[in-house]
Design goal:
mainly beta, 6 helices, single chain, globular, 112 strands, about 1450 residues
Length: about 1450
């Protein structure tokens, strides 16, 4: 249906009427180009008085409330309100964003100021502490932050004559700040006796440490340093709101409506009283002044902007005016002329010329105005008032025709009928009155069907019917003029409505999101000719829909600019413009309507970028008109990667459990085993949900990832090296342009990105702290210095890093749907693209933010899901592969053309020196020329093309291709099935690596006398792997169902496999052909075991809680073991083949006799004496120690004992492989642990000679081979970590001093305020005699002579002027170390005690002190570098801890 797509026409903002004067100050300036910059609502406006033209900056998402001009007067900084407010620095010529500063303030940004050279910006927040923050705005980086004041701050300024000094002022305070390092330190201004403590509203800094400030009582306070030295009284008669410094002197403006000019020494030059001028009025209040040369700009509280030429100061020129105070609701358009009428709570009605962009008439009424209407011939203007009356004026001269008051509540809507005979007036008391125009507005009828206030009215074209909407969302119809309600739907079927401004009704169903409150769309207006509908809502958005718009959740185009609710919207009489008005922002926006948008029109939309797309086609609806998603992509989008327990949670969980287990560890535990294992080879490659994660390194090795391992594979030697720094699934991999470093991103609660060297396999940098749940895409910049990453949080955050420094440069929200790829522009390091589900976005860095622009598809197609993207030969050419098999070619943000490349999705794309290579779901690799004009060659991945040197077998022809890379004369291909292939340019294909396909892998068996193993998986394959140097898959067979277990017979000739449907089969171990199969159970077969020796019996355990015992020779079931209460997990035979040991899901350890299956009760002490043929049990006395402290959270899934019965290997749900000494008696045994698998390790097995351990990762589908390194052989390896879950006493405790220090808590002493609170009574208020229960203090000093004591009695004490610290006894040694140092070649000693740093001269015994700390110093160090002689750093306790650097004399 047509309404399901957004309309192809477009709105462009042409003019904004209004200026924000209320609650803002100092927000109006001349730019270098002599244009005027200010703001209104959420739009920054640059107005050229010469050309009478406006340009708009629309990078904000809410009301702008502060503005600062860069010293060069071309750049502007603006700050907004909101939950997560940000600052934009933008260019006043191009109105493009230069930098975005975010993630620091909350609530809003109250003031802004640039420093003298424009490098730094200071901002003040609206949070409870009024935080002051200094930015390096070009880099988007915060340099320093400090709490500003407990009350509001109104102005802040840099001292232009002293570096690193600032002044802020506000409610009853002024503060002088100094910036030292990254610390901002304030000193409060001392009012003294020179002036009263006042609220200071504005300030300006001058030479010689002078600061001038404007106070609430109209005085000017002059400060030197931090002291008030004089006041200029009566400068204004009321509060001074604005002060502006320029070359000639200072200009001040106040509530008294006067502008005063002062010279550089603040001597008065002249006064301009705006109230006395032609345009002036009583109550005019000045909020902003800017003095440049002989021009003065003045902004007033009521939203006017005046320009005054100094020598004609009596004739100010009014260049902008708008509504003020209260809300703006009334809007009407003239029926024949390009005029709009607005009325507001400020009691004024104004008529605007849409052609001249000017106010042409204004009239003040007695009451606040809520609605307006102009009759058909344009003669009468009706205004509905808040008090229930309405007034009719003549449009020509604004004289009153009639004033009628029939109601007590506000009139919210009124409309003239199309024939001009009637006026319908809708009131908040839920009635509509109808008046006859010719009968001097006599009341003719009344409509009373509504139960709530009337919101909208529309007349039918023949003036016989009226439709109404009310606050309940009800639509009612009435016959006119009597007002009788129409009950039958038949009667109104053919009615044509003269206008459509109702928000309820079949024709406008689609304007409502699927789930929405019925009151949040305030206004609608239909354009029948253009078949479009415009709406205004409570979120500040103007939207365009197709008309009629029948189904809920229709697509739209949206436009931002208004900050809060948009109260009304109307088409002009000739549909050239849309007028929208903002309730609280008092602004009137005039939008130009551009019917069918041509590409050339789009070119002037592009610069009007905004952080929220101003011309986005998004809609709140489901994507029902979208073609079906490809099954693979569908599957991939549903993966969440969320874990119940992350490895990061372990330390915390352990602590919690330790508290509970305090008493549990009395038994002395075994040491960890002497053996260790080393990862030797990994079979597998992660292709099923990752793309473009496979590359050649500099020296021709292959780098890729599987599970939590980064793998470097040498194809000549068939060996692998591993990066084991990750602890969970790696989801993405990127190669540095020099091909020697790799970046990998993983899953995690606070996921990390590791950049590591492929030669040394050591990490170079680890980046954390900005993503959640995982990192799904990474890419290096062309110079290799930056890295872009995308998270899998709900908004798929995009972060740009300086990875060497580990510093976040910029961050932005990517998309609510999944992003598959991020690519950095190879020519411009500040640009990048992201591609994903219905998403192609072009980003540009702006300071700490990224500005994104959606790819514009135009008429060439619809927005498709993008699976891969690359840049072309120039910086503005990009190519993306879609889910439908097309390649899209983009220039700048515009889609230029599409080329059909594959059947099914294009998953991977790689740019070459000349041309491109693509790979798709169809299993074809295609080579293209550099403009995608011609396909030069295709290679199909087929079994027939497999070269003899392949390390395995291809499972199917044309596997889905997920990654492609070129180099060394070959094409490297990664498939969804976990295979890595090398395609020679001449055609033959070599298989290098392979693993299981999607689905969990559980079944694992090692051969009784050969270095091979078998695996079986949910991917319905049974595979045999060679563990000797060839490391390849020897055989594979497809099964009818997935399997969970397998076992070789003792002679190695047969292989038993248990399947997920309850059946099992025995196959020839060499050919994998069926020997026999049985199906006795319905549920999964979980373990299968041949009896030892001749392998006479086969035990088959199932999730039905039974174990069936079969005679292998006769192929008959001979016994059933019953009695387990839960599913069976592990089965082991004893050496004689007569007894079975069984584990169940309920953590039972059971014993059964074979072959009959009779249950036996064996005490745990006896069980360990029995000789077991194998041990894979995880329960029992012998392996009590393998369960971790957090055994309730995670399961030990598998274990296996070496044939010499000394080392037990286990695998658990958290992906750890652990080695324990056997038997592992006593809780929480010591172990060595290894991380390589990501989630649960499903199975572990030693080979027949214990030389290797084979482990399976369930969901990571990898088979890992570890070599067993005996005690005494090995260098310490990074993945070896000897540890236990609990340290008991015998592990060696602390020395008593160390224990005591370890338990000291500094938090009690840490005070949030700078001054410690005092308890007790001050000395001079205390009682003189000690009370009986208090002993007088004992003094060690000799008693004072009598004479002295008496002398003191009658003397009047002199007040103490000041105390100077002279000597400090003491040194802090009880809980600090390494805190005494020599300085100055041993002449001085530096140390600390209490909150004082002490420099003690050895020869003289004198001391000098550093006293800037306000709490205990805990540490001290001296800089040893010859360049920084005598620099000392000290750190203190406190809630907001500081460390200081000081220079010792």
């Amino acid at each position: 249906m047509a309404a399901r797509s957004a309309p192809s026409c477009h709105l462009r903002l042409e003019w904004v009427y209004g200026y924000r004067g209320h609650q803002c100050r100092n927000n109006l300036y001349y730019t270098a180009a002599k244009e005027i910059v200010y703001f209104v609502a959420g739009v920054g406006v640059v107005y050229s008085p010469r050309e009478h033209r406006q340009k708009f900056y629309r990078g904000h998402s809410d009301d702008i409330i502060s503005l600062a001009l860069h010293p060069e007067r071309a750049l502007v900084a603006t700050g907004q309100v909101g939950k997560e407010p940000y600052i934009c620095v933008w260019d006043s010529y191009t109105v493009q964003t230069v930098s975005v500063l975010k993630d620091v303030h909350t609530h809003g940004i109250a003031c802004l100021a640039f420093d003298l050279d424009g490098q730094r910006l200071v901002s003040v927040g609206l949070d409870s502490k009024n935080a002051v923050c200094v930015w390096d705005w070009k880099r988007g980086k915060m340099l320093s932050m400090a709490p500003g004041h407990t009350d509001r701050i109104f102005d802040i300024s840099w001292d232009l004559y002293q570096p690193n000094k600032l002044v802020s002022c506000g409610v009853k305070h002024i503060k002088f700040w100094s910036l030292c390092g990254n610390a901002l330190t304030p000193k409060r201004g001392v009012f003294g006796k020179t002036g009263d403590l006042q609220t200071i509203l504005c300030l300006a800094c001058a030479r010689d440490e002078l600061t001038y400030s404007g106070a609430l009582n109209g005085d000017i306070y002059v400060w030197k340093g931090i002291n008030l030295i004089r006041t200029i009284q009566g400068a204004h008669t009321a509060g001074i709101f604005s002060m502006n410094a320029c070359e000639e002197g200072f200009a001040t403006g106040g509530r008294d409506g006067c502008i005063r000019l002062w010279d550089l020494t603040f001597k008065p030059i002249t006064v301009i009283d705006l109230r006395e001028t032609d345009q002036g009025y009583k109550g005019l209040s000045v909020r902003s002044v800017c003095w440049r040369g002989d021009h003065i700009l003045v902004g007033t509280q009521d939203g006017e902007i005046f320009e005054i030429v100094v020598h004609e100061r009596n004739k100010p020129f009014l260049i902008m005016q708008g509504h003020c105070e209260g809300e703006l609701w009334a809007l009407a358009v003239h029926p024949t002329k390009p005029l709009a009428v607005t009325g507001s709570d400020d009691r004024s009605v104004r008529i605007w010329s849409l052609v001249d962009h000017a106010l042409i008439a204004r009239c003040n009424m007695e009451e606040p105005i809520r609605c307006a209407a102009v009759n058909v011939d344009g003669i009468h203007l009706a205004l509905g008032m808040k008090d229930g009356s309405f007034t009719v004026l003549r449009v020509r001269d604004m004289t009153e025709v009639v004033h009628i008051k029939d109601r007590k509540e506000a009139i919210h809507e009124l409309k003239y009928s199309p024939d001009g005979a009637y006026l319908a007036v809708g009131c908040n008391d839920s009635s509509v009155d109808v008046y006859g125009v010719a009968q001097r507005y006599k009341k003719l009828g009344e409509c009373v069907g509504s139960l709530s206030f009337i919101t909208h009215l529309d007349w039918s074209s023949d003036s016989r019917y009226l439709q109404t909407n009310d606050g309940n969302g009800k639509r009612l119809l009435y016959r006119m003029p009597g007002g009788k309600e129409v009950a039958s739907k038949e009667e109104i079927k053919g009615v044509h409505w003269a206008s459509w401004t109702c928000v309820s009704g079949l024709e406008v169903n689609g304007i409502w999101p699927k789930y929405s409150d019925i009151n949040d769309i305030n206004s609608v207006d239909g354009n029948y000719i253009g078949q479009v509908l415009v709406t205004a809502d409570d979120y500040g958005i103007v939207k365009l829909f197709r008309y009629p718009c029948l189904r809920k959740g229709a697509k739209f185009k949206k436009y931002i600019g208004h900050s809060a609710h948009v109260t009304n919207v109307r088409w002009s009489h000739d549909y050239q413009w849309v007028i929208s008005i903002g309730g609280a922002d008092h602004s009137v926006f005039q939008w130009k309507f551009i019917p069918e948008r041509k590409l050339k029109d789009a070119l002037h939309i592009a610069p009007q970028e905004s952080l929220a797309d101003s011309n986005s086609d998004e809609s709140d609806s489901d994507l029902s008109d979208v073609p079906e998603l490809d099954s693979e992509i569908e599957q991939e989008t549903q993966l969440t990667y969320r874990r119940q327990v992350y490895k990061e949670d372990l330390p915390q969980l352990k602590e919690q459990y330790k508290e509970k287990q305090k008493s549990g560890t009395s038994k002395r535990r075994e040491r960890a085993p002497g053996n260790s294992i080393r990862l030797h080879f990994v079979h597998g490659y992660r292709g099923y949900d990752c793309r473009s994660n496979l590359f050649y390194t500099q020296i021709g090795e292959i780098v890729y990832h599987v599970a939590a391992v980064g793998v470097i594979y040498n194809r000549q030697q068939n060996t692998q090296r591993f990066y084991l720094g990750h602890d969970d699934d790696i989801l993405c991999l990127a190669l540095h342009p020099l091909k020697d470093y790799v970046a990998t991103g993983q899953v995690g609660r606070d996921p990390s990105i590791h950049i590591w060297d492929t030669e040394t396999i050591k990490p170079l940098s680890i980046l954390k702290g900005y993503h959640q749940y995982g990192v799904c895409a990474v890419d290096f910049s062309a110079d290799g210095k930056r890295l872009a990453s995308v998270g899998i949080d709900d908004s798929h955050t995009v972060v740009l890093w300086d990875w060497k420094k580990g510093e976040k440069l910029s961050v932005a929200r990517g998309s609510k749907d999944k992003i598959f790829v991020v690519k950095m522009n190879p020519y411009v390091p500040d640009k990048l693209i992201t591609a994903g589900i219905k998403h192609m976005k072009f980003w540009r860095r702006a300071g700490g933010g990224l500005i994104g622009r959606k790819g514009y598809v135009g008429t060439l197609g619809k927005s498709d899901t993008m699976m891969c993207a690359v840049y072309g030969r120039t910086e503005d050419m990009a190519f993306s592969g879609t889910s439908t098999g097309d390649v899209c070619i983009w220039r700048d943000i515009f889609l230029v053309k599409t080329v059909k490349a594959h059947d099914g999705p294009v998953f991977s794309m790689h740019a070459l020196e000349k041309g491109f290579v693509t790979g798709g779901k169809d299993g074809v690799v295609a080579l293209w020329d550099d403009s995608f004009e011609r396909c030069l060659k295709t290679y199909a991945i087929k079994r027939a093309a497999l070269a003899p040197g392949s390390k395995g077998l291809l499972l199917e022809d044309n596997p889905s291709i997920r990654a492609i890379s070129l180099g060394h004369g070959h094409i490297l291909v990664g498939t969804k099935n976990g295979e890595i292939l090398e395609v020679d340019k001449s055609g033959p294909i070599t298989l290098l690596v392979q693993g299981h396909m999607e689905g969990e892998v559980w079944g694992l068996a090692t051969h009784p006398y050969l270095p091979i193993c078998a695996t079986v998986s949910d991917d319905k394959t049974l595979r045999i792997w060679d563990l000797s140097p060839s490391h390849c898959m020897l055989a594979v067979r497809k099964l009818k169902k997935g399997g969970r277990c397998c076992c070789f017979s003792p002679d190695g000739k047969a292989l038993a496999v248990g399947l997920n449907d309850g059946s099992f089969l025995m196959a020839n171990a060499d050919t994998l052909e069926d020997l026999v199969s049985f199906h006795h159970r319905k549920d999964v077969i979980s373990d299968i075991r041949f009896s030892p020796g001749s392998g006479k019996y086969l035990a088959v355990a199932s999730h039905d809680s039974f174990i069936d015992i079969y005679n292998v020779m006769s192929s008959k079931r001979v016994g059933i073991c019953k009695g387990a209460t839960s599913y069976i997990t592990h089965v082991d035979w004893d050496i004689r083949g007569k007894l079975l040991q069984v584990n169940t899901g309920a953590k039972e350890q059971l014993f059964f006799e074979a072959p009959r299956g009779k249950k036996q009760t064996i005490p745990s002490g006896e069980a360990e004496k029995i000789g077991w043929a194998s041990w894979t049990s995880v329960l029992g006395f012998c392996c009590e120690g393998i369960w971790p402290v957090i055994g309730e959270v995670t399961d030990v899934t598998a274990s296996c004992l070496t044939s010499d019965k000394t080392v037990l290997a286990t695998g658990d749900d958290l992906g750890f492989v652990k080695l324990f000494r056997y038997p592992a008696k006593g809780k929480f045994g010591k172990f060595k642990r290894y991380v390589a698998h990501s989630t649960h390790v499903t199975n572990v097995r030693w080979t027949y000679d214990d030389s290797m351990l084979v482990t399976l990762g369930g969901a990571d589908m990898s088979l890992m081979v570890w070599t067993n390194e005996m005690e005494g052989y090995r260098e310490k390896r990074p993945c070896d970590s000897e540890e236990s879950d609990i340290d008991s006493e015998e592990d060696g405790g602390y020395d008593s001093d160390v224990t005591r220090e370890n338990e000291i808590s500094y938090t009690i002493r840490a005070l949030s305020t700078n001054i410690r609170p005092m308890f007790g009574i001050k000395p001079h208020l205390q009682q003189k005699e000690p009370s009986t229960d208090e002993r007088p203090p004992v003094s060690r000093a000799p008693p004072q002579p009598e004479k002295l004591q008496t002398n003191n009695v009658g003397k009047k004490k002199r007040p103490i002027e000041d105390l100077v610290l002279e000597l400090v006894f003491g040194y802090r040694g009880r809980d600090c170390r390494n805190n005494v140092h020599y300085l100055n070649d041993g002449d001085d000693i530096i140390y600390h005690t209490a909150s004082v740093g002490i420099l003690h001269n050895v020869a003289t015994g004198t001391q000098s002190f550093y006293q800037e700390h306000n709490d205990d110093i805990l540490c001290l160090t001296v800089n040893q570098h010859p360049k920084f002689i005598n620099i000392v750093a000290t750190g203190q306790v406190g809630q907001d801890t500081t460390s200081t650097l000081s220079i010792c004399p």
